Structure formats: C-alpha cells, structure tokens
Amino acid sequence: MLGTPLAAHAADCAALFDTQVRKLHSKDNLDLCALTRNQPTLVINTASRCGYTGQFKGLESLHQRYKDEGLVIIGFPSDDFRQELDDEAETAKVCYINYGVTFPMAATSKVKGDGAHSVFKALAEGSEAPGWNFNKYLVSADGQSIRHFPASAKPLGGALEEAIKAALQTPISGQ
C-alpha cells in the first residue's frame, strides 16, 4: 500500500477502503475494497434519531438511480452526536424497514476523534471530520479526491447529485 490514505494500491482499491467492516445487525462483514473498487463512493455517517434521518429516502433514491452506473453508497451509523439508538436491531429497523434502505450499512461506528473508524480518519485527513450526522463524502473512483458535503446537503436535486453525475463521468486515472 502507498503512503497516503487516498492512494490506490495494486488491486485498484483506494487505501481508505482497504478494510472490512461488520454489516449492521449482522455477523457478516463488508469487504469495502471489493465493494468500492474503481467506483465513485458516497460515504455517510448516519443516525436514527436525527432531524436529518429522513434523508435516508433521498439517499436510497440516489442509490436506485445511480447504482447501475457504478455509484456505491455506504452508510455508517454513529452515536458520536448522541442520536443513534443503543440497539443495532432497532437501528437496522429504522434503516431497512422504516426507510427501505438497500445500500450497504456498516455496524455502528465512531466517526470522529481518536477512536474514529479508519475510513473516517482518512476522510477527515482528505477533507474534514463530520461535524454532525449525515455528512456526505464523495470519493472518486480512483480514490484521489474527496468532496465533503454537510448534513444540510440534500441527496437529490442539488450540488451533491451534480457531483455524483460528474464523478460517474470521470475516467479512472491510468486507464
């Protein structure tokens, strides 16, 4: 692996995604390298009891609209802002049943500070740490660029969706 967190290694995996995370309310793991390889990826820190929780609907619409073009979306529930449920089964119910989320959701994770998950440490290094729930990070397919969008950025019809469209049109470096 190369020295910077955004560099890609020989497997065409952005270094920040060269890890596995446990799936939400599951014993199974998500191989983020395999999931994101050469794909623009949107990473979101989520919470079940936040004023922005309704964004799950828009995020799921983004997923349905752009998944066949290569967009990967990964949600990371977090209680760092004290708005996530203590029971992962309840968090899963909010995501999967209440909002119909079909994109991958990781197990509840820390997203800021020294104990942050390695993905969020790399995102903070490449842009900024989340200041609240539902921060959105668009990572280019080659892992060389990270665009941060605040919690208030709507999933559909704004700057985030325009950036996703552009990322889907951008060829991967070296190919």
Automatic annotation (TrEMBL):
Entry's Gene Ontology BP terms: cellular response to oxidative stress
Pfam families assigned: GSHPx (PF00255)
- In the UniProt entry, which residues are flagged as the active site? C50
Q: Which spans are transmembrane here?
A: none
Q: Which UniProt keywords apply?
A: Oxidoreductase, Peroxidase
Which molecular function terms from Gene Ontology are attached? peroxidase activity
Q: Which domain of life is it from?
A: Bacteria
Q: Which family does it belong to?
A: Belongs to the glutathione peroxidase family.
PANTHER family reported for this sequence = GLUTATHIONE PEROXIDASE
Task: Please identify the protein, giving its name as recorded.
Answer: Glutathione peroxidase
Organism (species): Alcanivorax sediminis
